[in-house]
Amino acid sequence: MKYLQYYVYAFIVLLIDQATKWVIVNRLVIGESRSVIGEFFQITSHRNKGAAFGILQNQRWFFIVITIFVVIGIIWYLKKTLDEGKKLLPFALSLLLGGALGNFIDRARTGEVVDFFQFTFDFSWLQTPYIFPIFNVADSAIVSGVALIFLDALISWRREAKQSVKTGSESGDLQP
Predict the structure, then answer these.
(1) Contact, 66 vs 153, CB < 8 A?
(2) Where does residue 115 fall: left (phi above 0), alpha (psi -120 to 50 degrees), or beta otherwise?
(3) Mind giving me the DSSP string for 70-109?
(4) Angle CA(59)–CA(115)–CA(146) in degrees, nearest 5?
(5) Contact assessment for residue 96 and residue 7, using Cβ atoms and an 8 Å cutoff
(6) Which residues are catalytic?
(7) How far apart are CA 123 and CA 157, in angstroms?
(8) Which tens digits make up the pLDDT trace of 94-143?
């Protein structure tokens, strides 16, 4: 039962991702944009047949196979971290799982991922505005999950360092 809540988190990410993509596909023509915050933040209907930043275009089966292995690995590692009593890492993994499945469904169904969040940064020192690669909810969940994994690693490292110092001082290894 302790595993269920993390699969629910992944399912919520998956549902939000697929619902927002459905809205984009059914309400906007590819290339159409709607302003949310001026030119800075727009909803733009875009399709990506590659990975992050448009790399590895038209490698549908590669991504499908890799994602299957990644999902199996995430599920295995999620169970392992829950058995160890961790909290933050399993949540991070549930975000990764939901995001990976969201983009997997797109690739399996249509061979491309629906992206729509577009941010434009207009720095005065640039000759032209910088348009960040368009992304979606699944991508956001994956990036957030990875960031939380790093945070968990830092917290664990710090805890282990403190424990090491404490253990060393208790055994008399540290000199005054």
Answers:
(1) no
(2) beta
(3) HHHHHHHHHHHHHHTT-SHHHHHHHHHHHHHHHHHHHHHH
(4) 80
(5) no
(6) 115, 139
(7) 37
(8) 999 999 999 999 999 999 999 999 999 988 777 888 889 999 999 999 99
